[in-house]
Structure formats: structure tokens, C-alpha cells
Specification:
- Helices cover 35% and strands 19% of the residues.
- By secondary structure, the chain is an alpha/beta fold.
- The chain folds into two domains: 74 residues, 2-Layer Sandwich (Double Stranded RNA Binding Domain); 80 residues, Arc Repressor Mutant, subunit A, CATH 1.10.10.10.
- A five-stranded mixed β-sheet has the order 4-1-2-3-5.
- Helix 4 packs across helix 6 and helix 5 crosses helix 6.
- The protein is globular and about 45 Å long.
- The chain starts with a strand and ends with a helix.
Length: 163
């Protein structure tokens, strides 16, 4: 059985779906929306509402309280192509307070020419902001897109000291 919980943050409720301490999906959205991002096997599993307690909740609260590296300790799993997996792994290596371009992400993911695929990996990231796709910006520094809206991306980057 999977569990879901949420925490109120300065930019809205952050909800996640987890298998014990392994986060399978997270975002500023609904359980219904998040469950669509799960693997087909996980979509078959029952999801039970739970209180936001435990390791995941503690680490998310710590992040929003200013411990900017706290999210790094959360284990995640999400379905995706080999390139997307490489891109998500590369995103998790970006230090809080730093941003890189989509082109840099493509390079760090092993395919320098795959800039569009890097953008697609950001858009398909099911575990935001734990996998920090908000740290990817356009070449030249423009913020680019963010699935939960530019104001949330901007807030996260300001919170981390990148803006």
C-alpha cells in the first residue's frame, strides 16, 4: 500500500505519494494528478491518506525552514527513459543556490545535443521539488518553464539564494 501526505508551505501545499520512505511522486497539485505520474505498477496499488509525519515530512519541513540541502536525503523513484533517469540524477547533483541551463543538463546527462530532451525530462519530473527541476533555466538566465508556475519556481530559487 502507498501513502500520501501533504505539508503547507509558503507557496502552497506540497503533496507526495510514497512507498514507506521512498517518494514516488511529489508536487504542488492533487493526489489524482500525482497518481497519473506513477509507474503503471504503482498506479494499481491502493493509496491511503496519512498524516505528514516521519522522515519525509521532517526533511521537507527542514528545507522550507532554511536547511536547503535537506531534500537531498529523500530517496525517490520515478518511471522514465534512460535519458530522463540520467537527467533527474544530474538535477539532484545541482547544489541549492545554483542553476544550470537546459544545455548544461543535456551535457551532464550524457547527450550534449539533447537540449529538448532535457526540457522534456524537467517537464516529466514527477518528484518536484525533491528532484530540483526548478534549478534548470534557459541559456542566458531566463527562468524558462515550471510545471507548477513561474511564481513557484522564482520563489524556490529565491529561497535557495539563486536569485
Amino acid at each position: 500500500m502507498l501513502s500520501t501526505a501533504s505539508i503547507k508551505t509558503p507557496i502552497g501545499s506540497l503533496l507526495w505519494i510514497a512507498d514507506s520512505d521512498l517518494v514516488l511522486a511529489a508536487g504542488f497539485t492533487t493526489v489524482e494528478e500525482l497518481s497519473l505520474k506513477l509507474s503503471s505498477d504503482d498506479q494499481e496499488r491502493e493509496i491511503k491518506n496519512s498524516k505528514a509525519v516521519g522522515k519525509i515530512a521532517d526533511l521537507i519541513n527542514a528545507y522550507f525552514d532554511g536547511e536547503l540541502d535537506a531534500l537531498n536525503a529523500i530517496e525517490v523513484r520515478q518511471p522514465g527513459s534512460q535519458f530522463s533517469q540520467a537527467a533527474w540524477k544530474a538535477m539532484r547533483k545541482i547544489k541549492s543556490g545554483k542553476v544550470i541551463s537546459y544545455a548544461d543538463l543535456a551535457q551532464r546527462s550524457g547527450s550534449p545535443a539533447a537540449v529538448r530532451a532535457a526540457g522534456t525530462a524537467c517537464g516529466r519530473n514527477a518528484v518536484a521539488p525533491i528532484v530540483p527541476c526548478h534549478r534548470i533555466v534557459k541559456t542566458g538566465g531566463a527562468l524558462g518553464n515550471y510545471g507548477y508556475g513561474i511564481p513557484k519556481k522564482e520563489w524556490l530559487l529565491k529561497h535557495e539564494g539563486a536569485l
